[in-house]
Amino acid sequence: MTGNIAFYCRVLKVSRQGFYNHLEAQKNPWKYESLAAEIYEIIDEDECNDTYGRYRMHKALEIKETVDGEFPHIPCKRTVYRIMERLGIVHTPKRKPNGITKADKKAMKSDDKIKRDFTAERSLEKAVTDITKIQTADGKLYISTIEDCFDNAVLGLSMADNMKAGLCVDTLKSAIMSYPGLRGAIIHSDRGSQVRQEVA
After folding, report:
1. How far apart are the C-alpha atoms of 134 and 140, rounded to whole Å?
2. 10-residue stretch averages of pLDDT, the chain, 200 residues long
3. Cα–Cα distance measured from residue 99 to residue 68, given in angstroms and rounded to the nearest whole number
């Protein structure tokens, strides 16, 4: 760089010593150069890998270290993020969509008999139910299912162009009709108003 160094430092609001230290540091190789090369290699392995955030990239580096043996030291996730930021490959995660079903706050809460244990030792012991929305060319399609916690088998299914209580009732009826042994089983939901309504 040529010119009045003192003037540049005043404009940039840095000390002259700091400026010269920066120039000296530019001569040294980046200490994460080899790790950056490994990150690029991971991205090139699959077309979907370019969406990796710092957590998945850190995990991929750990796996690569285990497989390859000789591998540069893997820093913490925060440092991996800074490396990716410098390389210009940081992705902002998309905001998760709001759930379709809304909890009925006025209704009396039922006991949580599953307590987040979504496994079962035998079939038709515990099941979970939920509603999924699919956007089609003709409008919205709502699909309600009941799935067995034992093997994730679909026990009951119904579809409609709305998500009223009748959709959940039809799902339960189809499940009982196909699997009579489901009577007496625990069926867990997210306390949505659709599954808590009284239907004649």
Report:
1. 6
2. 73 81 76 87 83 86 74 81 88 60 59 80 91 88 92 92 89 93 87 54
3. 42
* Cβ atoms 152, 178 nearer than 8 A: no
d(CA 82, CA 175): 51
CA Rg value for the chain: 28
Pull the structure tokens for residue 144: 């309600």
CB 128 within 8 A of CB 101: no
Residue 83 burial (10 A CB sphere; 0-12, 13-18, 19+): buried
Residue 102: phi, psi to the nearest 5? -115, 135
Q: Where are the domains of the chain?
A: 5-87, 98-200
**What's the CATH number for 98-200?**
3.30.160
